[in-house]
Amino acid sequence: DVTTSGRDGEDRAAAEAYDAILLDVMLPDHDGVELCRNLRRRKVSTPILMLTALSATADKIAGLEAGADDYLTKPFNLDEFVARIRALLRKRA
Fold it and tell me: Most buried among 17, 34, 39, 61, by the most CB within 10 A?
């Protein structure tokens, strides 16, 4: 599923069971790090992979401390992206 707003994505992620969540940090209507934090507060345990162009160490730490399971910076290699998703799904299994 794809949502066009962070608020809609947060509500759907909290209401439905997903195998994984791909979350962009820079959303047009919401901060992805805060959205991740909100999902964890709402007891959503779905693995979250944050995707972003923000590559500073402080940005990565902020995403991981907000509850993301992994953090991948853009541009990224598609094979690495797939491997990270598979790793998240293995952990969940």
Answer: 39
Residue whose C-alpha is closest to residue 50's, from 66, 30, 79: 66
Report pLDDT digits (tens) over 17-75: 999 999 999 988 989 999 999 999 999 999 999 999 999 999 999 999 999 999 999 99
| 74, HSE (Cβ side, Cα atoms, 13 Å) | 11
Q: Strands 21-24, 70-73: parallel, antiparallel or unpaired by DSSP?
A: unpaired
- Please tell me the distance from the alpha carbon of residue 26 to that of residue 23, in angstroms, as a whole number: 9
Q: Name the DSSP class of 52.
A: E
Joined tokens for residue 32: 């992805």
